[in-house]
Amino acid sequence: MSHRGEREPKERTVRHGRLNRRRSGEGYDKKKGILRNEGKEPAWMVGSIEFSSCCYKDQYYCPLNMSVKTLYRHLKLASDIPIRCPLCNEPMTVNHFYHHHALENHRLQSRKQCLFCKGEARWAYGEKNRPDNVKHVVECLKRFVIIANETYVLSPKQKNVMNQIKETKMAQEALWKCKVAEGKAERDVLIIERDVLKMEKDVLKMERDMLKTKETELKTERDAIKTERDCLLTENARLRSALRDLA
Q1: Are the C-beta atoms of residues 114 and 120 closer than 8 Å to each other?
Q2: What segments bear the compositional bias annotation Basic and acidic residues (predicted)?
């Protein structure tokens, strides 16, 4: 009994999923109303993500041996955190992932593996709520958090600089596009000239073939004339020999 006549409060049981832990003076700070981990940072806490608090005012601490399902239940409170689903690779919130993907796949898949790394990390039955395993689950979740664009957190001067850089990049892209268009036009002109040269080359080939045919015709005529001359020479020699015999 206290000096005011009020009854002293009994020891309470803090329920985190399947965890029942008695508040004792060793691990519980009565003044702040939070569970302490003896100066160590809880392994399940996600570094830059601020979770909504359902208890203990603005500070939110849980024991290290919190189960994976309890972790999903606490992540359900952080419905505004955007993540990219590790199962379907679609952008969604943690709450949507909890309701539509994590819980269903947690029922279907084995409870001896991590959902976020698609079963690469496994553990024995009953060891899913060990500190290392819970820390692994949260570290996997951190890889799928979508970080906002840096321009939203810049100062106005930095935004102006970023806009100037963006405008210069756009101008450079436009200039490059103009150069590319000019290069394509020059390429088309060169292609047309190449086609004209090919046509002229084909015409010259045809003329060369015609000259070759004329040359072959002249050669055949020359050969015919040579044969006729040889025949006449032989006939002339025969007649001369006949005249000599008569004389």
Answers
A1: yes
A2: 1-14
Report the alpha-carbon distance of residue 36 to residue 24 in Å, rounded. Answer: 10
Strand pairing report for 13-16 and 19-22: antiparallel
Residue count (the chain): 247
Q: What confidence tens digit (pLDDT) does each residue in 18-73 have?
A: 444 444 444 444 444 333 434 443 333 333 333 333 333 333 333 334 455 555 55
Q: Which residues contact 130 (CB under 8 A, 6 or more apart)?
A: 65, 123
Q: How far is CA 132 from CA 70, 78, 123, 138, in A?
A: 15, 22, 10, 10
Residue type, 162: M
The closest alpha carbon to 37, from 29, 69, 12, belongs to 29
Reading phi first (left if > 0) and then psi (alpha if -120 to 50, else beta), residue 5 is in left
Output the six-digit token pair for 67. 């189960």
Q: Cα separation of 21 and 31, whole Å?
A: 18
Locate all alpha helices (DSSP H) within the chain, ordered by sequence.
68-77, 94-97, 103-108, 131-142, 156-246
For residue 35, how many other CB atoms are within 10 A of its CB?
19
